[in-house]
Prior knowledge:
Blueprint: E1 7-10, H1 12-20, H2 27-38, E2 44-49, H3 52-60, H4 64-74, E3 80-84, H5 97-110, E4 114-117, H6 128-136, E5 140-146, H7 155-168, E6 172-177, H8 184-197, E7 202-206, H9 213-223, E8 227-230, H10 244-253, H11 266-278, H12 291-295, H13 299-311, H14 318-331, H15 341-355, H16 364-370, H17 383-390, H18 408-415, H19 422-430, H20 432-446
Parallel strand pairs: 1-2, 1-8, 2-3, 3-4, 4-5, 5-6, 6-7, 7-8
Amino acid sequence: MDKRKIGITDLTLRDGHQSLIATRMRLDDMIPIAEAMDEVGFHSVEVWGGATFDTCIRFLDEDPWDRLRELKKRFKKTPLQMLLRGQNVVGYRNYPDDVVREFVKRAAYNGIDIFRIFDALNDVRNMEVATDAVKKEGAHAQLAISYTVSPVHTLDRYLEMVKDMVELGADSICIKDMAGLLSPKVAYELVRGIKEKFNIPVQVHSHYTSGMASMALLKAVEAGADVVDTAMSPFALGTSHPPTETMVYVLSEMGYDTGIELTSLVDIAEHFKKVRESHKDKLADLTVDVNVLIYQIPGGMYSNFISQLKEQKALDKLKDVLEEVPRVRRELGYPPLVTPTSQLVGTQATLNVLVGERYKIVPKEVRDYIKGFYGRPPAPIDPEVKRKAIGDEEPITCRPADLLEPMLEKCRKELGVLAVEPEDVLTYALFPQVAIDFLRRKYARKFKLDMGFEKPWDEYAYPV
């Protein structure tokens, strides 16, 4: 009898280092091992999206598009995968449809084979345009549930969401557990429910923050999951994912076929040990964080609280802030705590505690969320909070991007001579302030121009 095939997606080159070293792995860390990883037999390798785009231009002075092209040259057998935030693309707000479509087109052209598309609110409307664009490019559209726990996030609710995703044209479904809240029991029930109701491949992604992820993945496989996400051991555990090597061994011992030989991972692990050592100053604490089970706060959000409260000389308020988060989340309609809604809830909770009066200060982003500009909240927003934030104004009911004007042509004109490649316009559209300085440095290097920019930049001419 043939063994059941279980695919392994390795996340080391994206979510592994995003989770543990603040997304600071460079292309130079990846190139020497890329061809060896290509020979392993992974279902796919996640290399792009999430926070990598922003970090490349903001902190690493690398062009994310160049990174993708260079990796595609070396991954000749293994599909490359990215995380796409639906209408947020790789940013922190909704962008117009022309930006979403062009981004998907250029990402597919430059090497992305599988697009994992999610929305922070699980509002499927915010996945529509991205999914349509991926299908038109002939790439694989994997639509993801942002898994969370609340009174309104029931098994039936998730299955209804999957039904909408299937109707949208999903090629596969991902259960994306960004906080490590997916228990083995729920993993089994949710995967089994999806497999029984829909004839579609299921992939499971679970962070190790609570210590449950390996157990959740195994129960998911038992229930019929087709692919699981892992990271090479030097970039596993803690707020990252189960180790690739361990999961390959265990699945093989249990009678599944991953198509991967454990010996093929040894040299890869050794390489990433050295990479990790070179970034040890940024390495996150690797212990299990029980706070995620009590307060449902992802590890990255927890560390941000510590950093922000230290800056305010208010670290003694940490427990108060942690206790405030579930209250704010309930009042805002139980949004999943994933980018960008985790930042909205976290900021509001912190302000409520530090100011001493709840919702005395409501940031613009939180007001926009309450107005419906991020999408439809999973549950109704508390009427008193709504009144304090936006008065008598009524939230929108349409898809938020329907209110946005196309912006690519405007960005192209604003960028002027710096719009050397089509991808440059997208970089500027997504992160305008950061992109200007980045593109100036990029083309100064490329065309050996004076980095002092003594002439106005528009006076430089480039071959296009």
